Amino acid sequence: MEISSIISAIVIGIVIGVLGRLVVPGRQHIGILWTIVIGIIAAFIGTAIAAGIGVADTDGVDWIEWLIQIALAAVGVAALSKVKVRH
After folding, report:
1. Most Cβ neighbours (<10 Å): which of 31, 46, 71, 84?
2. pTM for the whole structure
3. Cα(87)–Cα(83) distance, rounded to whole angstroms?
């Protein structure tokens, strides 16, 4: 993996994390750094899932891959927010 791939994964992860946070209703009790970390993880896992089902490389924008990544980020943000509230 090249440095440009890592940097682009981080940038995409930031966008995915923020979009995932916007999808979750209500107030989240986590900071922006946790949102970014969740977004990066969701981006990697979402890409793997999209590749597994054969929708990672399509002509044009990979909408299904983006939706998978955003959904994973939303689930991650909601789950971590609930864990933070309990502690």
Report:
1. 46
2. 0.81
3. 7
Question: Exposed, middle or buried: residue 72 (CB in 10 Å: 0-12, 13-18, 19+)?
Answer: buried
What does the block give as tokens for 17? 């994390």
Do residues 34 and 42 touch, judged by C-beta distance below 8 A?
no
Residue in 70, 79, 76 with CA at minimum distance from that of residue 20? 70
Residues 65, 55 contacting (CB under 8 angstroms) = yes
For 68, which DSSP code?
A: H
Give residue 11's identity as a one-letter amino acid code.
V
Q: What is the pLDDT of residues 2-40, one digit of tens each?
A: 777 778 778 888 898 888 888 888 888 888 889 889 998
